[in-house]
Amino acid sequence: MKLKKLAQMIALIGVVGPAIAQDVQADKPMQRVEITGSSIKRINVEGALPVQTITTDQLDKQGITNAEQLMQLISANGNGADNMTSGNNVFGADADRVSGGASFASLRGLGPSATLVLLNGRRVAGYGLSGKSVDLNTIPMSAIARVEVLKDGASAIYGTDAVGGVINFILKTNYEGLDANITGNFTEHGGGAQRRLSLIAGKGNLDTDHFNVMATITHDKNERLDSSQRAFANGFQPGRGLSPDTTGTPAANQLTGAGSALGTGFKMPGDPNTYLQAGLLSLQGKCDSVEGMSQYQTNLWKDVTSPLRSTYSCAYDYGGDYVMQLPTERTNGVARATYQINPDHRVYAEAVLAHTNSLSILTPVQISASFASGNAYPVNGPYYQDLSAYIPTFDKTKPILYKWRGWPLGDRTQKNVTDTARLLLAAEGTIASKWDYKLGLSHNQSRSTTDLVDGYAFTKPFYAVLGSGVVNVFSPPSAGQSQAAMDALEATKFYGRLQHGQTTLTQLDGSVSGQIFDLPAGAVSGAVGVDLRRESYQFAQDVDATTILLAPGNANQSRVSRNIKAVYAEMIIPVIKNLELQLAIRRDDYSVIGATTNPKAAFSYRPTNWLMLRGSANKGFLAPSFVQLYSGRLDQELPNGIIDPVGCPTHPGDPRFCAIERLNYFSGGNPGLRPETSKQGSLGFIVEPSNNFSVSVDYWAVNIKDRILNRTPQVILANAAQLSEYIVRDANGVIDYVNAGWINAAGLKTRGADVGLRGRGNLPGGYKWNASLDGTWTQSYQFAEFEGQPYKEYVGNFYTRDLYLRWKHNATFTVAKGDWSAMLSNLYRNGYMDQVPNAGKGTPPAGFNPRVASYTTWGLSGTYTGLKSTTITVGIQNLFDRDPPFTAHNVDEVVGAGWDPRVGNPRGRSLSFDVKYKFF
């Protein structure tokens, strides 16, 4: 970009943020420090952009041991399917990730890919299986000094991913001594215990010894928590509008079908209606004799085309059979060596390593038998179930079709292992006592694998075993199976590596900042920087997933790479006394998608010493991921009889338009994707009537264009006028093929306000108190599924991907005296309108409440430092043992039965302890 254009842009835009430096000792002068969202060092003061700071002390006292739990303390973080519990299910085609064993951040609810996660201000590699967002499980929490959350777009400094904001995890540095830390958290009702052990050691003082070496290692272990261990996880509450919508039960229901024992339909004596399914236990009124089973509630799940389909069937509460907390083990390590050449220059090397091992545990496979699959139960089978005593038309000379939950195979269990590493060489210092510089070269890598360890079988051999009749599909789990059946099933099972993926990120970055010249109101500071990155991704199936029943499968992706070259500049300008303007601009040039320039402007104005006004305006962008660009383009066909909604009205009766046969469509990646672009800003104030109290309110708005969404060919054809660019026609206007998969679909706009309260003071008896509240009010969250569709409001309404709640907050109140301190904490989530059961097709019961209640929990902890070299914290989380609020949502769309993991915590009341001991 030409220098003149760069200068013009800098004059129009800017940035500022709060500081992330180490604590300054009281006997030293105030030091200039680097600011999150800026490359200009300055004194740590409240700036033009809202930032939430979370200290390790807060985390310890609230029983937080991992980054996923930390996200609950950030009110600006969305309530989406980005946690490990929700990730234990499928949440639609738009999810740019593989769910197994990963956790992500989603500021403003814009999705994981729109939140930039940094470690000490630098990027880290994305999750190995999806090639995009950072897996929070890889963050070394025990080595964290503090966490800074920038609640504003920051593409002008960091480039892509920073549309929703930035979460910067800041590691401890220059540590001396040897500390041990042991942490535990144990639930009152059993299950889900969490343990952590960590060590940190360091030697050398930079000021006196001119060097420091430090290392920390941590091991975490989270035990499994099952839905069966919590009474609220109950999917059969028909009086409240909730019941299972599946007849795939552990004791099979029989299906109708040509050539089967039930024929194409059956009638009951004296009943003219035709029914399509039947179960012996249902006919006997004994569905509930098998754990998890119940009588199918036809009034709730009425099928418009066949309202009597499942009247005589049992249902199965598979939603109440989920694993609420996945068993997980993590080992993290950080090593850092720093050498101070002189007071103005230092160099350091840093290594961050993480190993995460988790199990994704899903319910057993569901089987719908068919003659084509060869798994119908044979007439001569030893367990043939004769229903002729109940159904006169039952033909026991015919095989039985059935629907069954294959419990003898076991739970579908995937072992997910992720290994990440980051190596960094860096230098920083001051030139001529005026110019601050930093320079770094880093290499990041994340490799993830998925092994199938139970519950999966090769489809054809498994179906052949079922077709032999050796397995009693009509038997409840309590009755077991014969040894011959178990041996036959075991021979069909698959154990081993399913898939693996890897991302790498190599980065060279540097910046120089300092005072440029003086104005009457003060010195103008500036910075220039460069960011050079090479990113790569590859993914492979180690076995043909199509041969394994219900194994997750993705298209292979050979290694793809892209280079990013970026330059950026900043200025901080004191316009007049107490009015400061911050300007920034960045230009990113991708070797694949081209170049983009993004500016930012911010201001802070203090008309009085107790009031500060601040605001910002900026542009941002989100580059398409490797999966969105390059995932396998699959050539497929739609069923015959497709109607062209544009061509058929003008060519009535023409089969080329009104009865299309073998219409081809493509799905998968789209190399022609454009980046998502955003315009956003904030305007707010801070009132500080005294040094002991402050209130901040920041109104924010984000508008996004060209959202990248995954769309089916049916959706594209149904909206042919608006999505015409994805329908390819020949010279005669006849559809040649449809480009489905990832497309630049539509827009999004969201508005709201962040609120912060801070207070401190003294109480009688020498006690000191400190209080804080961080809350987010979302005024509106609207988006369209494709361009041209009206925007729809989602705040306060059920949605399958995210819940956009009107108000959320996290508050704390601390009292301290001498060696003692106590903290009371509160977490609050607003209620919302529930999902209507069966989209209103059925008859909701009188007890159905269309609104999900709010959710609030309290925590209490105490800390004692009176023992030599020891700090002890004991706390109770969820003090009043509040269950997650009831919701009647369909578990086929959102995981959890009777509750929602996007809002509620299933652990219940728990006791935590944290013990730190300093050896020297």
Automatic annotation (TrEMBL):
Residues covered by the TonB-dependent receptor-like beta-barrel domain: 388-879
Subcellular location per the Swiss-Prot or TrEMBL entry: Cell outer membrane
PROSITE patterns (alphabetical): TONB_DEPENDENT_REC_3
Membrane disposition: Multi-pass membrane protein
Record-linked InterPro entries: Beta-barrel_TonB, Beta-barrel_TonB_sf, Plug_dom, Plug_dom_sf, TonB-dep_rcpt-like
Coiled coil: none
The keyword Cytoplasm belongs to this UniProt entry's keyword annotation: no
TonB-dependent receptor plug domain mapped to chain residues: 49-166
CDD domains: ligand_gated_channel
Entry annotated with the keyword tRNA processing: no
Signal peptide start-end: 1-21
Keywords, alphabetical: Cell outer membrane, Membrane, Receptor, Signal, TonB box, Transmembrane, Transmembrane beta strand, Transport
Pfam families reported for this sequence: Plug, TonB_dep_Rec_b-barrel
Family to which this protein belongs: Belongs to the TonB-dependent receptor family.
PANTHER family: PTHR47234, TONB-DEPENDENT RECEPTOR (PTHR47234:SF2)
Protein name per its UniProtKB record: TonB-dependent receptor
